[in-house]
Amino acid sequence: MATGWVWDERYMWHDTGTGAGPLPAGGWIEPMEHIESPSAKRRFANLVAASGLLAQLTTIAARPATRPELLRVHTPEHLERIEREAATGRGDAGDGSSPFGRESWEIAKLAAGGLMAAVEAVHGGAVENAYALIRPPGHHASAHTGWGFCIVNTVAIAARHAQSLGMQRVAILDWDVHHGNGTQDIFWEDPDVLAISIHQDGAYPPGSGAVEETGAGEGAGTTLNVPLPPGSGVGAYDAVMAQVVEPALRRFRPDIVLVASGLDGNGMDPLARQMLHSEGFRMMATRMRDLARELCGGRLVLAHEGGYSPFVVPFCGLAIVEAISGIRTPVEDPFLPAIEGYGQGIRPHQQEAVDRAAANVALIP
Ligand code: 3YP
Ligand code: ZN
To answer: For a substitution probing ligand 1, which of 34, 142, 271, 305 has the most ligand atoms within 8 Å of its CB?
Structure first.
């Protein structure tokens, strides 16, 4: 069955302006392009087209999320602030590191709505699963503010949309290398949404995503955090999938699986220190496709998040879309041997981190 593909040229017109890495330019920081720029994402889309894969996918048109759809997750004050700042031509999502331009409010709504369209296509059976290459990212945004380059929490909005279509139990796996703190906050007390985040321990935001953070109230046990030491590679991520993600989802029994698919765990990313390569992402995507088939009729929607190496991200992204579609293109990843050479086996201190997270699977009600 078909795989859906969401992409809109306007995602690339979200204008983050100048910066230097994640910081604003100024003082002794010479202006350059902000790191959350179109390059890596555009090159991913271009490789999907150039490889011939695009022609074999079912393209899904994006549409803007409506105000009531956004209000399922965000406060009216947050939405109105972003809209007001965008109208002035320049704004920031909340932390001074997340600048945006005049069109960014419309584009953020189009990112959320594109992901919702993917959920609808999977729900209606037009496609089995889908990848939404959306921008800006979403997983750091909470109900009342954006930050960490995120304006609205696209995956959370998509989860609420899935519920409105009758898919009550939603599992979210966030494999972006940073903690999915916004998503965690939004569903902290919600027993119907299982939120799992695999991230580099302490990378971002500071002090968030400890293994002890497992939800509260009605939602006790339905948040899982897997903080991995820097330097984790395919062996560590494979253990997380086998010991945490698969048992957790089997226990939770979702109606749909969403993935916050940041590709910044790649071995050459400027904003993290993990070591995944395209075959690592292929392994995780294949496992998620098979798990969704086992548990919920194959319903799986991936939402693009971070990933800042303009040369490695396209190959990791292509491997993921190949995996969920079951189509292999002739493309071979030229960066694979170098990252493979970093040493991909699991190390004892990484195994300990996985074991600690695995112990929390039993907390899922
Ligand atoms: C936000 C400011 C410093 C680190 C950066 C992380 C953005 C990201 O990719 N989040 O998933
Ligand atoms: Zn990230």
So the answer is: 271
Expressed in angstroms and rounded, the spacing between residue 126 Cα and the centre of ligand 2 is 30
Listing DSSP states for 43-100 in one string gives HHHHHHHHTT-GGGSEEE---PPPHHHHHTTS-HHHHHHHHHHHHTTEEESSSSS-EE
Q: What would the mean pLDDT of 51-79 be, rounded to a whole number?
A: 98
In this structure, the residue with its CA closest to atom 6 of ligand 1 is: 148
In a 10 Å sphere around its CB, with 0-12 CB exposed, 13-18 middle and 19+ buried, how is residue 309 labelled? buried
pLDDT in tens, 329-339: 999 999 999 99
Global pTM reads: 0.98
State the Cα–Cα distance between residues 94 and 205, nearest whole angstrom: 13
The rounded Cα 77 to chain-centroid distance in angstroms is 25
- Residues 193-229: tens digit of each pLDDT: 999 999 999 999 999 999 999 999 999 999 999 999 9
**For the packed helices 104-124 and 76-87, what is the interaxial angle rounded to 10 degrees?**
130
Tell me how far apart the alpha carbons of residues 304 and 260 are, in angstroms, rounded to a whole number: 6
Pocket test for ligand 1, best of 134, 139, 140 (most atoms within 8 A of CB): 140
